[in-house]
Amino acid sequence: MGGAKPRDTLLIVDDDATARQVAQAILSADNYEFRQASGGEAALASIAEREPDLVLLDVMMPGIDGFEVCHRIRTAQTRAYVPVVLLTALDSASDLARGLNAGADDFISKPAPRTELRARVRSLLRIRRQHLELVEQRSRLEAFYKQRESLVRMVVHDIRSPVTACQLIASSLLGPEHKLSALVRQDLETLREEARRVGRLLEEMLVMARQEEGKLSLSFERVDLREVVTETLAALRHAAGARGVKLESELAASPVWVGGDPALLRRVVDNLLTNAIKFSPHGKTVQVTVGVHRDKAMLEVLDEGPGVPEEARSRIFEQYEIVKMREAGGLQTGLGLAFCRMVVEAHGGQISCLGRRPVGSRFRVTLPLATQD
Ligand SMILES: Nc1ncnc2c1ncn2[C@@H]1O[C@H](COP(=O)(O)OP(=O)(O)OP(=O)(O)O)[C@@H](O)[C@H]1O
Ligand SMILES: [Mg+2]
Q1: Where are the domains of the chain?
Q2: Which has more confidence, 148 or 230?
Q3: CATH 3.30.565.10 is the classification of domain 218-373
Q4: pLDDT recorded at residue 357
Q5: How far is the CA of 223 from the centre of ligand 2 (A)?
Q6: pLDDT for 337-355, tens place per residue?
Q7: Which residue from 305, 311, 314, 206 is spatially nearest to 264, judged by alpha carbons?
Q8: pLDDT at 276
Q9: Is the dihedral of CA 101, 104, 108, 111 positive or negative?
Q10: How far is the centre of ligand 1, averaged over its atoms, from the C-alpha of 324 (Å)?
Q11: 134 with 149: CB under 8 angstroms?
């Protein structure tokens, strides 16, 4: 036997000192470390101080009895499963049921037969060891995932600045003071657009990671949804024009107040519009509407593109879910809508994709209206 292996510790609990000695004498034939407790309270204190690998527990004890001790072991936070064997002089069915309800693993009648006691203890210790191994594997895996996640996040974080730099440089080169050929201008515009896209993806990955960790804090303000849309439209007008797509909006005459994080809401609208533009054929129109419908703020983005097949309409809100298209007008990553759903739901709203006749898609976002103050 590997001498370096730590011995299993058995806690023997009995108010009768002789009974404790007898049990220990039997089990001494195997290589264990022993601790003894003369009652329920002493047993619980001993367990709290250092977790044993198995508890041999007398049922009938003054004070806290074996059933109760067993119950408390089961409800306590232990590193892994601690097997409990109840030693009892009684063997009525109701005692058996009580013991099992309290979470005991096994029963042995007193006085315990030698071979049986040794065999049962060994088998329960085996289970405990397997359990400990699983617990350890799990914590190793968790540590590994955490490490990987934080590495990914760091990389994402560090790519942000060079991407922003690309965007800014392209913008400054596109300034009116530079004489550029149409071709160079077009390439620079593409460069700026792509850098913007990557920047947006990185930003959204970071926001989603924070949300998954439960660390996303929304800055809640009263926001006019019409303004969110107007600002986003202005930012995208150029990109739409470059693809020959017209942008139209139909906004309510009075403010549509929602409570939310304006920056995140802008990203939602940005994502929906970017998709609509990306999937629109040349010469078609993308329409945005904002209004109040059934006591909710409602925003819709409509396009005349290929639309989303019915079976895929709920799936596309999952991460990395896309519908393969023969002629996708750009890269399909499948993160944008997952981000939208996360943000909309964090705001207490809903997002859905509907069909449109004869062609096209309609994305609908509903949000609770802000309360009057
Ligand atoms: N307006 C639309 N018309 C047709 N299909 C769409 C439209 N919007 C989204 N889809 C489908 O849903 C998929 C998921 O969209 P989502 O915005 O999540 O990802 P993406 O646009 O592919 O990439 P990104 O992460 O850059 O946004 C798209 O790949 C496309 O298949
Ligand atoms: Mg998208």
Answers
A1: 8-112, 137-216, 218-373
A2: 230
A3: yes
A4: 86
A5: 24
A6: 999 999 999 899 999 999 8
A7: 206
A8: 95
A9: negative
A10: 10
A11: no
Distance from the alpha carbon of residue 354 to the mean position of ligand 1, in angstroms: 14
Ligand 1 touching residue 277 (CB < 6 A): no
State the distance from the centre of ligand 1 to the C-alpha of 337, rounded, in angstroms.
7
**Which residues make Cβ contacts (< 8 Å) with residue 3, sequence separation at least 6?**
none
State pLDDT tens for residues 42-57: 999 999 999 999 999 9
Question: Could you tell me the pLDDT band of residue 373, with boundaries at 50, 70 and 90?
Answer: low
**Distance (Å, rounded) from C-alpha 206 to C-alpha 140?**
25
Is 60 exceeded by the pLDDT of residue 176?
A: yes
User: What residue's CA is closest to ligand 1, atom 9?
Assistant: 275
Tell me the best of 203, 269, 275 to mutate to test the pocket of ligand 1, counting ligand atoms within 8 Å of each CB and taking the most: 275
Percent of the chain with pLDDT over 90: 58
Identify which ligand lies nearest to the alpha carbon of 308.
Answer: 1
Q: Closest residue (by CA) to atom 7 of ligand 1?
A: 275
Task: Please give the C-alpha separations between residue 227 and each of 21, 233, 290, 344, 346, in angstroms, as whole numbers.
Answer: 81, 10, 10, 17, 20
What is the average pLDDT across 315-319?
91
pTM: 0.62
Work out the average pLDDT over 80-103: 83
301 CA closest ligand 1 atom index: 1
Closest ligand 1 atom to residue 335 Cα is 25
Quick check: CB of 205 below 6 Å from ligand 1? Answer: no
Residue range 8-112, CATH number: 3.40.50.2300
Q: Which pLDDT does position 90 carry in this prediction? A: 66
